[in-house]
Amino acid sequence: MNRLSLNQKTVNGCTLPEAVAACVRAGVPSIGVWREPLHEVGVDAGAALIAEAGLRVSSLCRGGFFTAPDRAEVLADNRRAIDETAALAADCLVLVVGGLPEGSRDLPAARARVADVLAELVPYAADHGVRLALEPMNPLYCADRGVLSTLGQALDLAEPHDPAVVGVVVDTFHVWWDPDVERQIARAAGRIASFQVCDWITPLPADTLLARGMMGDGHIDFRHLAGLVAKAGYTGDVEVEIFNADLWREDPDVVLARVVSRYAEHVVL
Question: How many domains does the chain have?
């Protein structure tokens, strides 16, 4: 249990102080922070709050959206996100790379732009001691959120860079379906910056962004994936990140209790 982390999206109605307090009450030792609630309290105040609670920061979510039209603003916002990651001493900055630009159908061009922007950000991240974590997303989100659809694509993009500066996210929701997932997780040895868990539930809701379920409520074999990630050498936190409207309406302490029990039942090796 000392590797369990709560991603803030799992208790989306909570402010950062409320999420930190809930983690402390539940005995969860780490938190994945989102930038918007961090900004509400201020970066320095948020970092102090987390440190005083004795929590680690497993990730900052999120940077990326490299395919947006204003490249200068994309770079500026991601540099701010790198600064915030350093201030929190977070393990990584999660990058959701962005979908197709409006009106475009050119996936290769969008992916090439992601590679170009990443290369521009790497020196800044290295100078600040921050690890960038490319998150491949389920193909469901290719058009509007993430043109990297497989772990293999994310690794191809990461490999020209120092593994200490550019890694990848293994999120069970996004990779469980991939027939090549075993080989790609093995290939990711030394590059896994974050391991996130939640379940794939059916039927999918109308808003597919909110299609994630609590571990054990869907179709994913968590222990199989956790074993592959462990074999690849990952020893960091295991972050529970669930986008689910029904869950967000529940009492956060009830949600945390279920996170702890389901993590023990379905994920821990």
Answer: 1
**How large is the average pLDDT for residues 135-154?**
98
For the segment 151-161, what is each residue's pLDDT rounded down to a tens digit?
Answer: 999 999 999 99
Which two structure tokens, joined as six digits, stand for 98? 């962005």
Please confirm whether the linkage preceding 203 is cis (ω < 30° from 0): yes
Region 119-137: what's the mean pLDDT? 98
| Averaged pLDDT of the chain | 98
Name the nearest CA neighbour of 245 among 206, 215, 200.
206
What is the predicted pLDDT for the residue at 102? Answer: 93
Q: Which domain holds residue 190?
A: 4-266
Identity of the residue numbered 82: I
Q: If DSSP states are collapsed to H, E and C, what string results for 164-201?
A: CCEEEEEEHHHHCCCCCHHHHHHHCCCCEEEEEECEEC
Q: Which of 117, 112, 122 is nearest to 156 (CA)?
A: 112
CA 232 to chain centre: 18
CATH number of the domain enclosing 177? 3.20.20.150
DSSP H or E stretch at residue 115: helix 107-127
Do residues 100 and 107 touch, judged by C-beta distance below 8 A? yes
Region for residue 65 given its phi and psi (left: phi exceeds 0; alpha: psi -120 to 50; beta: otherwise) = left
For residue 262, give every residue at least 6 positions away whose Cβ sits within 8 Å of its Cβ, in sequence order, or none. 214, 215, 216
Report, as an integer, the average pLDDT of 209-220. 97
pLDDT digits (tens, 9 = 90+) for 7-41: 999 999 999 999 999 999 999 999 999 999 999 99
Q: pLDDT at position 141, please?
A: 97
Q: Token pair of 186, please?
A: 């093995």
* Three-state secondary structure readout of 131-172: CEEECCCCHHHCCCCECCCCHHHHHHHHCCCCCCCEEEEEEH
